[in-house]
Amino acid sequence: MTTLLSDTSAPIVAVGLERTFGSGERAIRAVDGVDLSVEPGEIFGFLGPNGAGKSTTVRMLTTLLRPTGGSAKVAGFDVATQSDEVRRSIGVALQDAAIDPLMTGAELLHLQAVLYGLPKADHTARVGELLERVGLSAAGDRRVGTYSGGMRRRLDLALALIHEPSVLFLDEPTTGLDPMSRMALWDEIRRLNNDGTTVLLTTQYLEEADQLADRVAIIDHGRIVSRGRPDELKAAVGAPTLFVAVDPAQVNTASEVLTRFGELRPTAEGTLGVGLAEGAAGVSAVVRALDDAGIGVHHLELNAPSLDDVFADATGHRLEGAS
Known about the structure:
This protein has 323 residues and is of the alpha/beta class. The chain has helices at 54-61, 83-89, 105-115, 123-133, 149-161, 179-194, 206-212, 230-237, 251-258, 283-292, 307-315; strands at residues 12-21, 28-38, 43-47, 69-74, 77-78, 90-93, 167-171, 198-203, 215-220, 223-228, 241-246, 264-265, 272-275, 297-303. The protein has a 6-stranded mixed sheet, sandwiched between helices. Strands 2-1-4-5 form a 4-stranded antiparallel sheet, with helices on one face. A 4-stranded antiparallel sheet has the order 12-13-11-14. Helix 6 (179-194) links the parallel strand 7 and strand 8 (198-203). The longest helix has 16 residues, at 179-194.
């Protein structure tokens, strides 16, 4: 493994991180040379579709997987050679975490306190504090099997916080949640960050990264393809995207018309997109040109630059709807 510079103060830092599964011709490189540096006290968003390498990277940074190349330090400790120290310093809420449905929320938190070696005299107060913090005080004595999806994710978060970690890893924490539960969890993540906790958040939701992250790294096929502050990345895209839906038989003709007004952009199947330099003022000219070409428009929508545009610009395909 390559040597990681030891003079960095970043709570999460990785250099050339790699993870390969299998060997020979069937080897799959899930993470391919990832460089990361997460600053103290920030929320760092790791954005990408399923299978892009987000969770594999997190599993290496949290010592659940050993890197097959590169190096990383978390909370000042090497993930390969100082795994015990890393684990004592971090909190982790994974997407597929197993929680015993027969235990109550309070019982699980007490057990977590024992596993982390917290003084027994402090257990009850700490458990009560965390249940209140994540809005589960009334459900603390209920079996977890009766919890909703949102309640389970909030319990996951409480379990990750039992030992007051300075660095918190959240792997797609809101996947499968309804909008209200998602926003409630966002609020709790913001509160944690305001208290000084450094957060690395993986997500495939554009709005989540936009709402929460101070900086984002976009990963695709195991490689980081873009990184920076969300507003800066969106500004670099430039023109808004005009999405146009037409009959499948007229797609080629419509594409030729749209190229007169800007650069074509990747879109979801069944839709065309063009970067419209003139913005809203240029829409009427596009509509007239399509009409003159005998093209019927089923739907037309102008969107300001988004993180999906950033992803499309970097990879040639859209993040939204990716499987």
